[in-house]
Design brief:
about 80% helix
Length: about 180
């Protein structure tokens, strides 16, 4: 059943976010080693522009991953309350990330009794990661935000697999025995 869920479902490739974080770190290290403080803060250097472009790509890819994860949930469970486009809007206002993270945590907890996820804790980590990307240090912010998103995605996969196995067991239990046996 696990292979069927994974083949049918196109989860976002969160590893690309880690790659973007690594690229951002490499560019930052190179900039610190080669540029003076004035060249970095003036913004006239093309390397600074490349770093900023990398940060924006990382943020847009994070939003895409959030969209794709909600799209997967909607395709398997149409009753899931947050539409993918609404998740994007919530992500654009960082404090509103709490809405989709808490709804996703409630969904996971209600459909997977053996694994629990804490919505406010995941929200706090994603919020801190996005704030760090925007205000402090992009690399660590990306690692934190994508790490939490990867954790949530793994829990969603486990939940979809266990809920499909439960549905298969219920269907098998409800099927009448065949007359020839």
């Amino acid at each position: 059943m696990k292979n069927i869920i994974e083949r049918k479902t196109k989860f976002p490739r969160v590893w690309i976010g880690y790659f973007i974080a690594g690229l951002c770190l490499s560019l930052e290290i190179y900039a610190v080693k080669t540029l003076t403080r004035d060249e970095i803060t003036s913004g006239d250097n093309p390397l600074v522009d490349v770093i900023l472009l990398t940060v924006y790509v990382g943020l847009f890819y994070f939003i895409y991953c959030v969209y794709k994860l909600h799209k997967v949930l909607q395709s398997h469970h149409p009753e899931y309350p947050i539409k993918p486009i609404l998740a994007i809007l919530f992500t654009l206002v960082p404090i509103c990330i709490f809405v989709w993270v808490s709804k996703m945590a409630m969904f996971i907890n209600s459909n997977s009794p053996e694994r629990k996820i804490v919505g406010w804790w995941n929200f706090l980590l994603i919020f801190t990661g996005i704030a760090a990307v925007k205000l402090l240090e992009p690399t660590m912010g990306f690692v934190l935000a994508y790490g939490v998103l990867h954790h949530i995605q793994r829990r969603v996969k486990e939940t979809l697999i266990s809920s499909s196995q439960i549905a298969d067991q219920q269907t098998t239990a409800m099927d009448p025995p065949s007359a020839g046996h």
